[in-house]
Amino acid sequence: MTALLRSRSLSSRGTIVVAFLLVLALLAPVCAGAQTTQKYPPTIVFMTDFDVLDDSVAICRGVMYGIMPDVRIVDLTHQVTPFSIFDGARYLYGATPYFPAGTVFVVVVDPTVGSTRKAIVARSKRGQYFVLPDNGLLTLVEQRDGIESVHEITNPDWMIGTKRSSTFHGRDIFSPVGAHLARGDDWTKVGPEMAVKDLVRLDWKVAKLDESGLNASVIATDGPFGNLVTNVDGDDFLKLGYQRGQEVPVKVNDKEMKIKFVKTFSDVPVNQPLLYIDSRGHLGLAVNQNSFAATYGIKPPATLFIPKAGK
Question: CA 273, CA 122: separation in Å to the nearest integer?
């Protein structure tokens, strides 16, 4: 009888050990996942029109590190065309798809700093956060991703300095708020909620496709290369009926020309113009190894008209 009880006891202990090992095996991936998540610090993507000739960018980064020492800061660019809200909006639009939910974007392109314009935090429907002035910078992101909620920044506990500058809100407001968000603080505490419909929006003209062709705009140049950036979606251009290798009649402002539609720059001789679908999916105009803007004297904004093929 004693031997039987001892056998049952050992069997019971064995069952408990096996069950314990099974639980550990099930928890191992979860723990590993948690360690992987914690391995990477939160990310702030930082963009301004400050340039890097003085200490402004470094000061803002210092404010962020002071609040969240292990934050990862990615500099999108600090060479936005000075005061160009539109350029800031299009760079933001181009970059956001490549960053995950939870990323905090701190954007300071703020020509009316110190005025009655609002400083805000917005959360997109993709789960990204935007800390910036309410001046239209979110226009293109909102059109594509949607904005879920907006709060005005009014809480002084989220700012720095008892005497905030009227001209350096990048340091005193936007940088500390971005760091608080990256630290995981409750972003709704930054200030009162605003109606999304009340956001300031840019007067963005969309390209129009009709029976005559495509009426559109040249909206910018592509960095130092002088390629023309348009508001024409590549798919809309293809609806005109042109195939790669064809000459396409194009009118930019009052300049009429025929340009070959190709896949990449080297598909035409050096110093020859070309039409192509750029890396962001829009129609672009370029000159192989030269500047289209300089070669043809085009300065954005400019009008663009392309007729339908065969017309």
Answer: 41
Indicate the pairing of strand 282-287 with strand 273-277: antiparallel
Q: Do 73 and 174 fall within a single domain?
A: yes
The strand ranges marked E within the chain are 43-48, 72-77, 104-108, 119-124, 129-133, 147-152, 193-194, 208-209, 213-222, 227-233, 247-252, 255-261, 273-277, 282-287, 302-307
Query: Is 248 in a helix, a strand, or coil?
Result: strand
Q: Is the pLDDT of residue 30 over 50?
A: no
- 3-class secondary structure, 221: strand
Rg (alpha carbons) of the chain, rounded to whole number: 27
Domain count of the fold of the chain: 2
User: Is the residue at 21 inside a domain?
Assistant: no
pLDDT tier, 309 (very low <50, low <70, confident <90, very high otherwise): very high
The answer to whether 120 and 133 are in contact (CB under 8 A) is yes
Is residue 99 domain-resident?
Answer: yes
Q: What is the pLDDT of residues 266-296, one digit of tens each?
A: 999 999 999 999 998 999 999 999 999 999 9
Indicate the pLDDT class of residue 16, thresholds 50, 70 and 90. low
167 with 267, same domain: the answer is no
Q: What CATH number has the domain bearing residue 296?
A: 2.40.30.90
Does residue 121 fall inside a structural domain?
yes
Is residue 5, in this structure, part of any structural domain at all? no
Instruction: Say if residue 116 is in the same domain as residue 252.
Output: no
